[in-house]
Every structure is written in structure tokens, then in C-alpha cells.
Amino acid sequence: MRRSLPAVVVVVVGLLLLVDFVLINPTVAALASGALELVVLLAAAAALAGAATLVLRHWTDLAERRRDPLGSGILLAGFAVMLLAGFYPGSSGASDPAVRWLVAALLAPLIAALFAMLFVFLLIAARRGIALRPRQTAVMLAAAAVVIVLLVPIGGQLGDSLAALAGWAMNVPIGGVFRGLLIGVAVLTAVHAARILISVEGADE
Amino acid sequence: MSEAGAAPPSAGRRYGSMSRPRGAALWWPVLLVALSIAILAGGAVPGGALQMANPDTARVSEVDEAFDALPDDALVLVAMDGDLGTYPEIRPAVRAALDDLLRRGAALAFVSVSVEGRAIAVAELARLGAGGVDADGLLDLGYVSGVEAGLVRLVTDALPPGAEVGMASTIEERGGGLSAFDLFLLVGGTDVGPRTWVEQVGTRLPQKPMMGLAPTFAQPELAPYLRTSQLVALLATVRDDAAYVESVGDDAEAENPADRLPSAAAMLLGMLVALVVLAQALGGALPRLRGPAPRPAVEDDEA
């Protein structure tokens, strides 16, 4: 069976790490450590390449006035400001006060604001979901309403009872579903990895 | 074919013309009134009408036990992998935990395998440094790329190049890897969190205690690890975070607003708004639920 080079590399590295996990052997450990170093370097290189591609793409969009030139300009300006703060002569890099200020005063509030909009978007999605698939969405929304009621932060005996019920709901029905999902995902991942390692699956597709 | 195409509008008219069950429109105002009464009644008890902290302090006790079990001059690894969107939810608890550990004499080393976690770690290190924490009690292990691969590499080699003095020398004496630490405090976010650490590091260093601190959405995912003792403690709900923060100090006295717990009144208001919207949506759907299942009007991914 013909296999491509990437598939062979995947199988070899996978087996190497698996053997290193199971056996205590200095030679295998050194080889596995080398492979891990390579992966760490590749991940860093991929991040840099991704950033470079992003800049090139938006630079081209801006220069040729395509898609969203204003958005591209803002993105490139933000990129430049952050790079300048981290690389100016005498800068201490990621821990430089200018970088910390940019992150704390601009980036963090912007991202937090985007996350905060989830509240609105989820409620809109709930109303649209009811219109599209009333039965399924009704079950989901009813469960969501019950969980919200259980989590209401009130004091007194009622608050204690609600909190106890919330703990039970999180640990038993919701926790059970998540545990089942985790086990299922783990089993499928293991099966998929085994199929690649023993060459059952066409890893070179 | 024409029947399928005409189904959504005709179905909508048919279900829309059906009378709603008696009292269906009243249940959500009744719920709001009940909650209001509960809040007013709660005002008579100590602690006030609104109580953010979870009255069940089991999670807080587990954190205390994990910290109490630390040896003198313990080395604690803070795996800071929160993200900027969800970190505000857990920030008061994270800061309370860091302060608690420092009060107990522990030394803290920060490491991140996510970019946003690195930004948060840098900010927290600067905050602690500005707060007068002894420089020997803090160590920045930096950012390690590769996530899972980086974590596995950290098991045997956690020290960045050039780190040789203070806490770094102690870590070097203990082998230079993650086994040098007495506790892992795992701060999670949407991408990387305690689960990744348990999978990649916990399986290689099963004897090392790990404590998780994550946003609420991660709680169902992480709770099984607490049951199996792969995590010795877990704070993953706002109410557990509040209970922990209140157990280690009065957060109302915190000078920095970011160190304070979220407002219970604001949270309650948001919950009530959500309940009203959900109740309205459900109430409006009740007549349609009684009839045959309508065909999806716009999307049909089952086709």
C-alpha cells in the first residue's frame, strides 16, 4: 500500500510518543523529547506564518481597496501599534508597560464586550430557534429556564435550597451527560489514532 | 411538492389562530412575583436579600485542604491559560487564591501555553510585583508554544534559558521539570484549561496535586476529574468563586474594582431579563407544540 511521507511521519512520531509514554528508556526519551521540541518550534513557526499571512492579506486588501479596506486598515494599525510597543528600543517585550496597557486598556475590554454580547445573541437565537424548531428548542429553553432559576443568587432558606438543587443538577444530570460525551470522544479519538497507527485508515488522503 | 413549499406559512397561520391555553400568559409574571417575594423575604436573613456565595462550601473546603497540605516554602505552578473574554468571571477568585498562597509562604511560578493566557500572566505578575511581593517568591516561566506538545515538554524541562537564580535554582535542584512543584494551580479558559493539563501532565505526574479554576461553562466538563481526584479542588462557578473569595477576606474592601466579586444585583437583573425572554418565547410556542410537528420554515439539515 502506497503511503505519503506525512502519513509515515504521523505514524512514526505517534508510535515514538506512545512508546515513550509506556516505557522508561533514555534513548526513546531523548528521541521523544527531540520530536516534542520540533513540534513546539513548528507551532511557533506556524503562529508567525499565520500572522504574516494575515498582514499580507489585509495589506493587499487595503492597497487594492477590496472587501473591507477600513477594517483591514484598523487591523494593520493595531498590529503595528502592538509590535511597536513590544519592539521599540529598550522595550521589555510582552512585559513592557506599553504592551500591558494596550492589553489591559484596549484588548481586554474589547474582547470582554464581545463576550458580553453573547447574552443578547443567545436570547435572540432562542426566539429564532422557537420559530424554526419549536419542539426541540422548547425543551432546551425550558431546561435553560430551570437552570437560571436554580442559580438565582438569593439568600435565605429558599436560596440555600435552590443552590443545593443547582449543585445536584450540575453534578448528576448535566455532569452525567458531559461525562458520557467525554468518554465517547476519548474512545473515538483512541480508535481513530489506532486506525492511523496500524495503517487501517487512508491517512494519506 | 407544492404542499411542502406552502407548509410553513399555512402552518404558521393555523397554529397562530389556535387559542393559547388558559393561564399560559400568566406563568412568567407569577414566576417574577415569586422571585421578588423570595428576594424580599431573604432580606430578613443575615447576609441580605442577595447572596452570591454558594451556601454549600464543599468546594471551598477542598481548596483549603489542598493549600493546607502544602509543605513550608512550597513551590506552586500557576498555569495561566485563561482568555480575555472569560477571565473577568474568575479574576477575583484567581487573585484571592494567589494572595492566599503567598500568605501561606508559597512561591509562585507562572507559565502559559496560550497567547491570551500569557498576556494575563504578565499582567498578574506585574500586579503582584507592584503590590510588594518579594521578587524571590515569583518566577516567570514564560510562554510555551505547541499547547499539548509544550505541556509534555514542560514535564521534563520547565525552565526557560537563562533562569538560574532564586526559585529557578530550586527548580533545577529538583530536576528542572514540573515534578519540582508541590501544586499546580490551573487557570483555564475557552481553549486551554485544567482538562488539557490533566490529560497531558496529570497522566505523567499522577502524584502531583492539581487544582482547577475555570469559568462556569467548563464546570460540567471538569467535575468528573474532581470526582476521580485527578483534580484535588475545583472552583468553576461564580457562586463557588464568591464563597472562596469571601472565605479568605472581605472583597468589598478590595481597592481595585477588578478584585471585587460581580454584583449579585446585576446578575439577578440579567437572569430576570433572560427568564422573561425565555418565558415569552416558550409561552408563544405552546399552541404550536400541541399540534403536529411543523416542517422547518427556513432550514432543514435533516434533508
Whole-number average pLDDT of chain B? Answer: 82
User: How far from one another are the termini of chain B?
Assistant: 14 Å
How many helix segments of chain A? 6
Main interface by residue count: A-B, 65 and 75 residues
Backbone shape of chain A: extended
Write down how many β-strands of chain B occur, each being a DSSP E stretch of 2 or more residues: 6
Cα radius of gyration of chain A in angstroms: 26 Å
Radius of gyration of chain B: 25 Å
Q: Can you summarize the main beta sheet of chain B?
A: 6 strands, parallel
Q: Provide the helix percentage of chain B.
A: 40-55%
Largest sheet of chain A: none
> Average pLDDT of chain A, to the nearest integer?
86
Short description:
Chain A has helices spanning about 5-20, 25-65, 70-85, 95-130, 135-150, 155-195.
What does this structure look like?
- The complex is a heterodimer of chains A (205) and B (303).
- Chain A is an all-alpha fold.
- Among the domains of chain A are: 1-87, no CATH class; 150-205, no CATH class.
- In chain A, 83% of the residues lie in helices and 0% in strands.
- Chain A contains 6 helices and no strands.
- Chain A has helices at residues 5-22, 26-63, 69-87, 97-132, 134-151, 156-197.
- The longest helix of chain A is centred in the C-terminal third of the chain and has 42 residues, at 156-197.
- In chain A, 14% of the residues are buried.
- In chain B, helix 2 runs antiparallel to helix 11 (264-290).
- The two termini of chain B are 14 Å apart.
- With 303 residues, chain B is an alpha/beta fold.
- In chain B, strands 3-2-1-4-5-6 form a 6-stranded parallel β-sheet, sandwiched between helices.
- The relative contact order of chain B is 0.16.
- Chain B folds into 2 domains: 58-259, 3-Layer(aba) Sandwich (Rossmann fold); 263-293.
- The chains are: A mainly alpha (205), B alpha/beta (303).
- Chains A and B meet through helix 2, helix 4, helix 5 and helix 6 of A and helix 2, helix 5, helix 6, helix 9 and helix 11 of B.
